Amino acid sequence: MEHTIHNERRDFLKKVSLSGGGLLLGFTLFEDLMAGPVQGQLVEGLKHDFNSYLSIAPDGTVTIASPNPELGQNIKTSFAMIVAEELDADWNKVVVVQAPLDTNRFERQLTGGSGAVPHSWKRLRNAGATARLMLVTAAASRWRVSPAECTASEGMVMHEASGKKASYGELVMDAAKLPVPPEVKLKDHKSFKLIGKPIRNVENKNIVTGKGLFGLDFYREGMMYAVIQRPPAFGTQIKSVNDKAAKAMPGVTNVVTFKNNVAVVGTSTWAVLKARKALDISYEPIPGKMPESSTDHDALFTSMMNRTDAKVNRKEGDVEAAFSKAAKVIKREFECPFIPHNPIEPMNFFADVRPDGVELVGPTQTPGSARKAVSDLLKIPESKITVDITRLGGGFGRRLKFDYVVEAAEVSSIIKKPVKLIWTREDDMGGGSYRPAVRYRFEAAIDAQGNLTGYKLRGVGINVGNSTRENNFPSGSIDNLLIDSVDHSSPITTGAWRAPVTNFLACAEQSFLDEVAEAMGKDPVQLRLELLQKARTAPAGPVRYDIDRMENVIKTVAEKSQWGKKPGVAQGFSVYFSHASYVGQVCDVVMEAGKPVVKKITAVSDCGIVINSSGAQQQVMGGILDGFGHAMYGKLSFTNGEPEQKNFNVYRHVRMKGIPEVDTSFVDNGKDPTGLGEPALPPTGGAVANAIYKATGKRIYKQPFIEQDPLKETE
Amino acid sequence: MPVYTLNVNGKSLKVDVAADTPLLWVLRDNLRLVGTKFGCGIGSCGACTIHLNGNATRACLLPVSSVGTSKVTTIEGLTEKGDHPLQQAWDEVDVPQCGYCQAGQIMTAAAFLKKTPNPTLEQVETAMNGNLCRCAAYHRIREAVLVASKKTK
What we know:
The complex is a heterodimer. By secondary structure, chain A is of the alpha+beta class. Chain A has three domains: 4-203, CATH 3.30.365.10; 215-287 and 347-422, CATH 3.30.365.10; 307-336 and 434-492 and 502-707, CATH 3.30.365.10. Helix content of chain A is 30%, strand content 26%. Chain A contains 18 helices and 30 strands. In chain A, the strands form eight sheets. A seven-stranded mixed sheet of chain A has the order 13-14-11-21-18-19-20. Chain A has a five-stranded mixed sheet with strand order 2-3-4-5-6. In chain A, strands 16-24-23-22-17 form a five-stranded mixed sheet, sandwiched between helices. The longest helix of chain A has 28 residues, at 116-143. Chain A is globular, with a radius of gyration of 28 Å. Chain B contains six helices and five strands. In chain B, α3 crosses α6 (138-151). In chain B, β1 and β2 (11-16) form a beta hairpin. Helices cover 37% and strands 15% of the residues of chain B. Chain B has two domains: 3-78, Ubiquitin-like (UB roll) (Roll); 85-151, DNA polymerase, domain 1 (Orthogonal Bundle), CATH 1.10.150.120. The N and C termini of chain B lie far apart (47 Å). Chain B is α+β, with helices and mostly antiparallel strands. Chain B has helices spanning 23-30, 75-78, 85-92, 102-115, 121-128, 138-151; strands at residues 3-8, 11-16, 49-52, 55-58, 71-73. Classes of the chains: A alpha+beta, B alpha+beta. At the A-B interface, α6, α8 and α17 of A face α1, α3, α4, α5 and α6 of B.
């Protein structure tokens, strides 16, 4: 199906400039302007707001400004591919540049929620298609033929009948004089030439030669280096500071105390790291806050499970009746600890607070929020603050918080010099914003006929808010259902961690459903299919997932993994819908020397149209290993508010040795693309736990798996 | 502060730094060679891997005073044109996600392949196990090392 985009109706594309010898197009940021109060309010700003820029120079170079922060999700390559596809550009002539924060031109200039591609898909295509049409029109006019007789491919416009051809570079000055066409046709997805291909990361060459792409690599002549000593335990504050020794250390220019921080500033990273160790600071509990230990959380979770004032997130039918009439009830609890994000590049930011304005440079997933926070802190209007976005050495949600940006700005404002603030790994792992610790209790009621008639889920967590996703499967497929949650407010700070909530909820839920299937005497795949059929034919309340798409990934992954047909291999099944994508996984486990060993994970993902098959495979493989590694090993524990693990020597991440094989494939359904940075992660833990059960007869109810029987290493 | 004359990427360079400064920070702060990365500071992640006389070494644990006349090679000096078989393989296999750890991965692999030109998959895994990739691009790192080993034959 071809899509027609009407430009005039929403002023979609604006020709921004003819100067500089080329065509520069800005394309707008808003979703289809359908009638509605929210969109209506936005119309006012529409004429000035652009989502990205595409420019074509007379030498044929196509430059695309990528507004969203790049942290490894490969957005810099995918965005450009989408534009280049509709433009029929020569990919070798495409240059992608990272745009700075510019809320006048861009919207949703952030990285999070696997949302960038779905947000920008049509806009990017429209920009490419519009430029293409203008170039074709310019060529047709030059050759005095009809544009319909001309074709475009790889940066050239051709007129087959006369054999004439011209490059985009040759045509661009003519094209720039044309009005923006009122409407353009987008390609049928079946005719894509670039989209779907394995296109290499545009930054590969710079990465493998060690170019300074990252925030920590940023340098400005005359800048100072700073580290901050923060309270080592959550729930404590500074009682007294003796900074005499630190101030006397060589290379130290300032030691400043602000809020609960003591910043050491100097002429080199090593000088300030050493001087920080010479600080003598004593801390005391914050009045009214109790520094917490992990051992406290166990009792806390138990009491939260018994609370009668839980927030009801979804309720269908008569749950109590279903359970009282049940022939069999299964009740299980699952628990996960806090985990840090640990992006391999620690937090850092450059700030230069001057009387005329503020310059911020560094790695952030949310440049807009960071700027607003700095503006609020320093009482300087946002219009006087610039934010340059460097490449991010990983994010995983940590850089959605901008505490380190604000710190850098505050230090610079105090010392009145440009400063680069650096966190060490210990600062990072001890600095909060963790994936929250959560416990779930699942209950299933099975009637005398063997039907799943009731389902209850309670989520209790620490600083997580709603720890459930009440509208995800199996909601909609069970008549009597109650999903509620209780949250505890703690001094231990938490934040979004890759696939927030679902990163563990899916593991728990998919493990539980495996156990329910067993109790019902059903194959786990069959149970899911039957529940989906029920949701299709007699839904219990709203169904907020696409039944056909979910069913398809279930069937496809069962087939690809040879589900139930591998002698000597114990298989575990899992399927999850999150961030608008569907991923089914089957884990293969075999016993080696009496221990279960995870050998392979087969994944089938439905994220609609795959933009870059190389990048998509990376996201799925990386997401699965991330899910696997954290389920197996991830644990951050606390004693009196202080994290017990602060570096990689005591905090275990998945490494190369012993990684399972990962088989990735994608559903080809031509649907508009959805995100892929997160959706492959949630199903993994459940598939692994279920396979381990198959192999050993032992269920795992708690992360990290490595501490549980049958994986626990005996001393 | 003492002045050290270092041999970095074939050049003789003078730095005036405290004796206990890890080579990592000398490279990054003083010599502006930022391809060598800071990840953990305790030798546990491998992001700072360089070559010291051809041996893969963690720059974050190596005091500048102990470098002496040893030849230091960083990712910037691995090849002049960025065309080491590993650098080519990294691109061909499309290894990087965030990319932050990759220079360290390549430096570890380069020293390893020099000593083990025809590695098995298991040998690659053992050699590379000390290098953390938080994006977990391990399958492709492993593949790229094997691809590079075939290029050098």
